[in-house]
Each structure stands twice: as structure tokens, then as C-alpha cells.
Design a protein that fits this description.
By secondary structure, the protein is α/β, with parallel strands linked by helices. About 30% of the residues lie in helices and about 25% in strands. The longest helix has 14 residues, at about 220-235.
Length: about 375
């Protein structure tokens, strides 16, 4: 148990919409705007029960999570019942909750830099959360609504627990963009289905270890994997943004894909898909950061697992602070991550405070639009 506790790094916010699903049992075909009527007709609140179903079979595993949640009835009561320690989100919760309460809870969770927002609700809840989260952090829905048209939900509450447990145990869990959709409930109550797209959110999904690029034996082909990663980076390059590429073999595929000369053991600067500077020093990067928006593509060192501080010392503590953590995109093959055998990536910039701020779960690009969450620590 002590060994497991040393890995306690996943920060999860649990947010429950207490009126989700109220209209189903009383034939209201939804709960949007009719929760009071549903209660008058004898409907029972069930979203907390659905959250319990998601979490109750994974007790010891979920003790390793750092939980954040609003007060009852939006989460605290469930975690108390399960004996899971938690910290309250600084939001005033009333017995009668609204979409504004959900938004406030999500904003509070984002302010605390959670890694995942786990929520129980229906499509209306997903819409409310999407309006605040966008693609800032991954979310995972526990289905508790009357209608579930959005792709951000697990197929069952227990399935949501399985996905979360896989993340806690260090499995490679894919992060995918999924649609948030909802129907017009007024029209639906008149037997007309009108589904509308409202946006997308990042959602963890428990899939097979390898998905896109395989050889005949089912193993990942490194060249094809990094070609896919290269294609994704190139396809999403923004104009008037300088991309720092390097160092190492993994990032060289990007330069080759652009048809540009590459410094294998250095860092090159690309602007509008043309070579701006080669083999940059720390001072060169700081100079560019004064003139341009900067994004950095860095690779994981195989075997050792270093992300910062090995082979890319040009990315000094001053450089990282200047550019901003959000502008760094790590890349790796799933094979390389799998070969770490559960060990986290390492940040070793020489600046302890910065290393601690880098110690979090990072989105690692592992294929074309294919991401996994993986922890980075400092020792």
C-alpha cells in the first residue's frame, strides 16, 4: 500500500447534477426546466446513486486519488459514503441547484489544476460543463440523464469507474475529442427529435494498447507512429507562431516532413513551415520569445524517461517560464511509454520550484490526434 500511495498524483473533481434524470421515471422525457414538476410527480433523485455505482467497486484504488468536490448534494455526500478523503470546492451550494452552480464548480476545479473532471448527469450537464471547460482538461461523464446523445459519457456508471481505475493504475488511457450534443426537449416531448451539436471535450477512453499503426504481428511500428505524430503536428501548425523542434530522433520526423534541415542533437526554430534558425542556444530562444509566440515539441528520452533536463538543456528554467508550460507538447510512442513499466517521466531543470510545477499529468501525443495522460515528476 505504501508503494501505491507514493503514486498519488491524479487530481480529480467529482461534480454531480442532483436533478439529472428526474424526468425519466415520470415520463417527462428529460429534466431540463421540469425538475420541480418531476419531483411533484414523485420522481426520485438518482444521479448520486449512479455516481456511487461508478466508484464503489474500486475503493482502495480510488484512495490514491486527490479528490475535490462541491458540498452536498453535488458530490460530498457520495465521497463521504465511500470513505474517500476529499477537499471541498469553494462554492456555495444550495439544496436547489442550477446550471450556474455547475459552472461555478467547474471553474473552481480548473483554478485548482485538476487533471480530470468526473461528472454525473445527462446531455444538459455535459453542455453546461463544455461551456466552461472547452478543451482545457479531460472530462468523463457518468451517465445519469434521461437522454445521453453526447459522446463524453461512459457506456455505464461501472464503465466510468473502470476507465478511472485504469488511469490510477498507470495504464495508457487514450484521450479523444468527443462531441457534446443535446436535443430540444420541448420538441422531443412532441415526438420530434432535433439533435444539436454544442462542442467537443477531451475524454479518456479505455481502449487497446495499440490502435492505428501495426505490423503483421500487431506491434507498433515506430517509423509509422512518428510519421503519424509528425503529420499531426504539421497539419496543426499555426501561422506566425515559432515552433521549436528537438532534440532527438523522434522530433526529426517533423523536420523531415517539412522538408527542412534538421539538427539531430539540437533545437531548430520553424516559422510558417520554413526554417527560421538552426541549433538554438538558450539565449536564441529567449530572444525569439520576445518577438513571437512560441510552441515547443519535445520528446521523451527512451529508457530514462526524462522529459526536461536531458538532451534539451537549452530549454532552461528561464526559457520554460518565459514560454509557458501550456505551450509544450511532449511526443512519444506508446511502446516507449510502455517500456518505462509504469515509471513516471522526469523533470530535472535544475530549478526545484519549476520542477515541482512541472510535476503533473501531461497529455503525450502518441499518434495522429492520439493522446494519453502520463505523469511527470521531480525527484
Amino acid at each position: 500500500m505504501e508503494e501505491l500511495q507514493s503514486k498519488k498524483s491524479l487530481r480529480v473533481a467529482l461534480i454531480i447534477n442532483p436533478v439529472a434524470g428526474l424526468g425519466g421515471s415520470v415520463a417527462l422525457k428529460g429534466s431540463d426546466g421540469v425538475s420541480e414538476k418531476a419531483l411533484e410527480l414523485g420522481a426520485k433523485k438518482r444521479s448520486s446513486d449512479r455516481a456511487l455505482m461508478a466508484l464503489q467497486d474500486f475503493g482502495e484504488c480510488f484512495q490514491l486519488i486527490e479528490w475535490f468536490t462541491p458540498g452536498a448534494p453535488m458530490g460530498a455526500q457520495v465521497l463521504k459514503e465511500l470513505g474517500l478523503p476529499f477537499k471541498l470546492l469553494p462554492v456555495q451550494i444550495k439544496e436547489s441547484t442550477t446550471a450556474e452552480h455547475t459552472a461555478s464548480c467547474v471553474n473552481a476545479a480548473l483554478d485548482l489544476n485538476v487533471d480530470l473532471i468526473l461528472f454525473a448527469g445527462g446531455d444538459g450537464t455535459a453542455r453546461d460543463i463544455c461551456s466552461v471547460v472547452g478543451d482545457r482538461v479531460p472530462v468523463l461523464g457518468i451517465p445519469a440523464g434521461v437522454k445521453i446523445h453526447s459522446g463524453v459519457y461512459a457506456v455505464t456508471p461501472h464503465a466510468a469507474g473502470e476507465i478511472l481505475a485504469a488511469m490510477v493504475s498507470g495504464e495508457l488511457v487514450d484521450i479523444k475529442q468527443q462531441e457534446v450534443r443535446d436535443i430540444d426537449e420541448t420538441a422531443f416531448r412532441n415526438n420530434s427529435v432535433k439533435s444539436k451539436y454544442f462542442g467537443e471535450m477531451q475524454v479518456p477512453s479505455k481502449g487497446e494498447f495499440l490502435q492505428h499503426t501495426k505490423d503483421g504481428s500487431g506491434k507498433e511500428v515506430e517509423d509509422l507512429t512518428f510519421s503519424e505524430i509528425s503529420d499531426f503536428i504539421i497539419d496543426h501548425m499555426e501561422p506566425e507562431v515559432v515552433y521549436l523542434i528537438g532534440s532527438g530522433k523522434s522530433t526529426s520526423y517533423i523536420m523531415e516532413g517539412l522538408g527542412l534541415q534538421n539538427t539531430l542533437l539540437g533545437i531548430d526554430a520553424v516559422l510558417d513551415k520554413t526554417l527560421l534558425m538552426s541549433d538554438l542556444k538558450e539565449e536564441d530562444i529567449l530572444m525569439l520569445a520576445e518577438q513571437y509566440r512560441i510552441k515547443v515539441v519535445i520528446s521523451v528520452i527512451g529508457g530514462q524517461g526524462h522529459l526536461f533536463g536531458r538532451g534539451n538543456q537549452q530549454l532552461s528554467a528561464e526559457v520554460i517560464r518565459k514560454i509557458g508550460i501550456k505551450n509544450f507538447q511532449p511526443i512519444a510512442s506508446k511502446t516507449k511509454l510502455k517500456n518505462l513499466e509504469g515509471r513516471p517521466l522526469i523533470a530535472d531543470t535544475g530549478d526545484r520550484d519549476l520542477d515541482l510545477s512541472l510535476s503533473r499529468n501531461w497529455k503525450i501525443l502518441t499518434g495522429y490526434d492520439d493522446f494519453v495522460l502520463y505523469p511527470v515528476i521531480t525527484r
